[in-house]
Amino acid sequence: MKKLTLLLFSVFLTFSCTSSDEEVETLAAPVIAINAVNTVFLPKNNIEINATISVPENQTQTILWKKTAGGSADFESDKKDITITNLEKGNYSFTLTVSNNNNQSSEESISFSVSDGKVLYNLDFENSNEGFKTSIFGNYTSGKELRNVTEETNHCGTVYMGKKEDFTDWLTYSYEGNNSNFVATNMGTCLGYFTSAIEKEITFTEDFSNGKLGIQFQYYKPGDFSKWGNYNLEVSIYKNDLNDTSKPIITFSPTTNPKGWSLFNENLSLEKGSYRLVIINTNAQTAIDNIILYKNN
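Above: the chain's sequence. Below: its structure in token form.
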């Protein structure tokens, strides 16, 4: 009798654990991540928003986008990735709601502005390397043109432009949330510690020492890997006559965001003249895209 009782108790425990695991999976709500959205600068009046949605296997999902603030806008409300058109100057907010077949739902919101500020540089890496070359501040040979990740097999020590499918996943990080070209470290093929850096000349024909200059970029810095060294993503501006002992005029170091792609926007002051824009990726998985320098009205 004792053996039979133990056997039945064991079967009960096994069934209970299995049922519990299945129930947790079944009851899990959708997980949503939305890419960072730029400020839209008129006369351009449209923008793409990409969403990543995770649901347990065998669950259906219902998608609904709603505009919760802002002026005119046209978009398809039942698509995961949407293109919003016919925007006008002002601030906008949108909310994505995803529901599953267990009547559970999740929401994620995003906000952006439409500005009539004058764009001085729009570096999106879609059709070219935007004039960037490798910098003396990196471990890779300086003066080499920024290349597509598919054009080279030795990826250690520098960064490349490409789409997320061109880069090797590393520690489960895969640049999700950006379907366009961007600049990133291909850490999946590398062992060890290195610094990669690129630079380009930028020139301003008017004085911006009054703080009327803005800089904006999307960046990917999903984890804190500082235990392996000086992990960082830095965007710096130097005088044009830089050398390996030069000090930057200003440096931006965006914070870590485990949700993925984020938006950085800040005002700065620069006098009329020629400068070097330097992007430094130190160790681990970082990326940058859509660098915009603009004049505030």
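The CA atoms of residues 40 and 279 lie 23 Å apart.
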